[in-house]
Amino acid sequence: MTEKVVLYDVKDAVAIITINRPGQYNALNIPVKKTLFEIIKKADEEPTVRVVVLTGKGEKAFISGADVNDFVGRDSKTIRPVVESSRNISGYLESMSKPTIASVNGYALGGGCEIAMACDIRYASTNARFGLPEINLGTMPGNGGTARLPRLVGLGIAKEMVLTGELISAEEAFRVGLVNKVFESVDALREGVFELATKLASKPMVAIRLANQSLNKTWQMSLDEHLKHELDAFCKTFDTQDISEGVSAFLEKRKPKFKHS
Predict the structure, then answer these.
(1) pTM (global) more than 0.85
(2) Would you call 134 a catalytic residue per the annotation?
(3) pLDDT digit string (tens) for 178-187?
(4) Which of 108, 147, 165, 239 has its CB 3.0 to 4.6 Å from that of 136, i.e. a possible disulfide?
């Protein structure tokens, strides 16, 4: 029986999606990207899932990038659908109704780094390495690397990473703001990610979704437009059951029991 290239598991309202190609450093070829997109969409649509974690099998790689074999013999027209399949994954992750966490164990290169950047939060183990080395192949990032990276780390750092193609350590990624937290081992990373995921899963999901959508508007709107969007989103939370429960629990000095509606 052929082993699944993408694994899917749900525990305590947390969906864990694992790229399962450790022998290929979890590189994404065209069939794997198709499966990954379908599973991410499944997690987003599953009512029992409230948080999504994306990771790679083993300790060597989160996602080492695209499978370079898919680049052979391509021209400007035939490469477009190949990279668009990657962009579909990143775009969907970024617009999901549920929080997403990239659990980065080992290499996150090229498309792998770009997919991690499309997640809401990035945690890494000390063995993680980040980079956009496409320049060394004679090309450049095509899955949001030149758009999302400068928004996270600033234009100067982004230009250095993209134009040199050099990798940075987990500690450096944390220093420049590419990752939120670094753990001493892959096991500690997985524990830390699951702890964060279950914490997020306990929060009121309608408010989480609206807050996350508003945060994602940071680079898409003017300040005035964004403030109006935020006010509209804030007011919508007062049509939920969870606002009543949250306020009552606060006044009664007890832990809220959110219904996520």
Answers:
(1) yes
(2) yes
(3) 999 999 999 9
(4) 165
